[in-house]
Automatic annotation (TrEMBL):
Gene transcribed to yield this protein: LOC117566502
Single biological process term from Gene Ontology: proteolysis
Subunit structure comment from the entry: Dimer of a heavy and a light chain linked by disulfide bonds.
Peptidase C1A papain C-terminal domain residues: 119-335
This protein's name: cathepsin L
Top-level taxon of the source organism: Eukaryota
Length: 336
């Protein structure tokens, strides 16, 4: 009798497994995704639309990860809070519009590494406490402000031995239009943000001028200043060796990169994509570098998409691969 029941149970399990298809699994994953990322939608139409987008994106992720397992690519993808967005929506909401004809002028010095410098094989400024926790820019193309602030917070800690969280919203609101010509949530350049901080005599603290993720009027208050800078240093454009020297000897550096569609789903590993364009559309902070024994040289990059993206908010990007994704094109840092 027991043998008959076992046979029946095995047959039933086999039947159920045969009836469950890939789409059923994806629908179950979508339900978990909504709970994990606290997603809710306005109506049934939107729910079904987001479900279909999630399915399409998850299939792309699964195909890529099969290639990762077989050693055909160096990084893994995963589901995150952006998996219910189309690539076009993601670009519109999260990336910035950068005019690459913009004149990168207004810096005070050019960083010239010494030929005699012997650089460490790796560096991670988090280990010395010089990097603040990862922040989240929200659905606003203000990465340039987070890039400038991220570098400034670190340099302030390195030189003043004080940890401070500074206001990205101050930059979003107060550098739009002449003379800095940034566009708030529609884009901007870190160098212009740092020019403002220098000209203005400082930038407010995060607590006094909290982030809103939208354009607002400028309400900077001098008595809320959290940091000041005396100048801006530019690193030779396109020179990864100079960038590595600056990261090792000076501290975290504001850089801008190209983000392609795969970047949206990055989970772990060294992001190495030879097809990555050098037309930059996102700004981040290079906080270190190193070498993975399997996947090669990388830059350690702090993003502004929250701690639940990538490797706890960070990405390792291919280094010494012909300036992949344009990472060494527009590097700057503040003098504190």
């Amino acid at each position: 009798m027991k043998a008959a029941i076992c046979i029946l149970l095995f047959a039933l399990v086999g039947y159920i497994q045969a009836r469950i298809n890939y789409d059923d699994v994806l629908e179950a994953e979508f339900e978990l995704f909504k709970v994990e990322h606290e997603k809710s939608y306005d109506n049934e139409y939107e729910e079904q639309l987001r479900l279909q987008i999630f399915k399409d994106n998850k299939k792309l992720i699964d195909r890529h990860n099969k290639r990762y397992v077989s050693g055909e690519t160096t990084y893994k993808m995963g589901v995150n809070k952006f998996t219910d967005l189309t690539q076009e929506e993601f670009k519109r909401l999260m990336l910035t519009s950068l005019n690459t004809n913009h004149s990168q002028e207004g810096f005070d010095y050019t960083y010239n590494p010494s030929a005699k410098d012997s650089l460490p094989s790796s560096i991670d400024w988090r280990s010395s406490g010089a990097v603040n926790p990862v922040k989240y820019q929200g659905r606003c193309g203000s990465c340039w402000a987070f890039s400038a602030v991220g570098s400034l917070e670190s340099h302030y800690f390195i030189h003043k031995k004080r940890r401070v969280s500074l206001s990205e919203q101050n930059l979003v609101d107060c550098t739009r239009g002449y003379p800095y010509n940034n566009y708030g949530c529609s884009g901007g350049w870190p160098i212009e943000a740092l020019k403002y901080v220098k000209d203005n005599g400082g930038i407010d603290t995060e607590s006094s001028y909290p982030y809103e993720g939208r354009n607002d009027y400028c309400h900077y208050k001098r008595y809320n200043i959290g940091a000041q800078i005396s100048g801006i240093v530019q690193i030779q454009s396109g020179n990864e060796d100079a960038l590595a020297s600056a990261v090792a000897n000076k501290g975290p550096i504001s850089v801008c990169i190209n983000v392609d569609s795969n970047f949206q789903y990055y989970r772990s590993g060294v992001f190495n994509d030879p097809s990555c364009s050098q037309t930059v559309n996102h700004c981040v902070v290079a906080i270190g570098y190193g070498t993975d024994p399997v996947e090669g040289d990388y830059w350690l990059v702090r993003n502004s998409w929250g701690e639940n993206w990538g490797e706890d908010g960070y990405i390792r990007m291919a280094r010494n691969r012909n300036n992949q994704c344009g990472i060494a094109l527009y590097p700057v840092y503040p003098l504190v």
